[in-house]
Amino acid sequence: MLLEVTENHTYYGKSHILQGVSLAVDQGETVTLLGRNGVGKSTILKSIGGLVHPRRGSITFKGQNILGMRPYKICRLGIGYIPEERRIFPKLTVRQNLLVGIKPRYKVDNPWTIDRVYDFFPKLRERDGQRGGNLSGGEQQMLTIGRTLMGNPELILVDEPTEGLAPLLVDMVVHILKSVNQEGVAVLLVEHAMDVALELAKRTYVVSKGRVVFNGTCDELLANEEVKRKYLEV
Ligand SMILES: Nc1ncnc2c1ncn2[C@@H]1O[C@H](COP(=O)(O)OP(=O)(O)OP(=O)(O)O)[C@@H](O)[C@H]1O
Ligand SMILES: [Mg+2]
């Protein structure tokens, strides 16, 4: 497995948020995390990305322990984190925003370049010299993903990328994540919309109150009325 999270316990102060979460992502795989509001989905991604440090458990990436590491180190190892709030630099141009994403990493085959990102997102090429803050919501989402790719990740953690986007843009983000995955990048995706999650992933975890309550293929989830009724809004 590329990423292995085992019996993870994460706290915010005294609040015990993740209560023994275990999950895994294989090389080149797309996996989704589903669950209602406030169950700990974002906290799982933050724990992997090193933004919060679990008190117990283990997290390994390519066999190496990453628990307790600083976010920039985790990023250099090949994990890109795309938070819910799109963090582009509004005053920098599109090109400058992409340059910010370059990370020193060892031995990468076929590294991402600005040109390769622009081939991937032709809309961004058209916007090359414009300020990030002037882009539409969908273009900003492309820029965030493009900047993350510039760090040559092997795994990206994506938190609700379709949140607040119009249906057409949701389709675009789905298409982008599919294409990124086809380039060999593994994706761990938090998604509210079950149809989006199921379209992208073969495997899914359902989270409730800081625990994984279902782990299986999307077909198994679709067939499991109890899990859907109890833990998802359907
Ligand atoms: N920085 C923080 N300090 C204290 N409590 C927090 C903090 N961040 C999140 N929480 C709490 O931890 C719990 C899990 O939050 P988290 O953001 O991981 O949930 P989520 O599943 O991503 O929810 P949503 O679907 O709303 O994004 C919630 O009860 C939330 O209020
Ligand atoms: Mg969240």
Q: Largest sheet at a glance? A: 6 strands, mixed
Residue share in β-strands = 25-35%
Q: What series of H and E elements makes up the topology?
A: EEEHEEHEHHHHEHEHEEHH
**Distance separating the two termini:** 31 Å
Secondary structure category: alpha/beta
Overall pLDDT level: 93
What's the CATH class, please?
Alpha Beta
Q: Mind telling me the C-alpha Rg?
A: 17 Å
Second rung of CATH, namely the architecture: 3-Layer(aba) Sandwich
- Placed side by side, the strands forming the largest sheet appear as 6-7-8-3-9-10
Molecules bound to protein: adenosine-5'-triphosphate, magnesium ion
Helix % is 25-40%
Overview in brief:
The chain has 234 residues and is of the alpha/beta class.
Could you walk me through the main structural features you see in this protein, from its secondary elements to its overall organization?
With 234 residues, the chain is an alpha/beta fold. The protein has one domain: P-loop containing nucleotide triphosphate hydrolases (Rossmann fold), CATH 3.40.50. Helix content is 36%, strand content 26%. It has a 6-stranded mixed β-sheet with strand order 6-7-8-3-9-10, sandwiched between helices. The chain has a 4-stranded antiparallel β-sheet with strand order 2-1-4-5, with helices on one face. The longest helix is centred in the C-terminal third of the chain and has 16 residues, at 167-182. The protein starts with a strand and ends with a helix. The model has no long low-confidence stretch (mean pLDDT 93). The chain binds adenosine-5'-triphosphate and magnesium ion. Magnesium ion binds at residues 41-42, 84, 159.
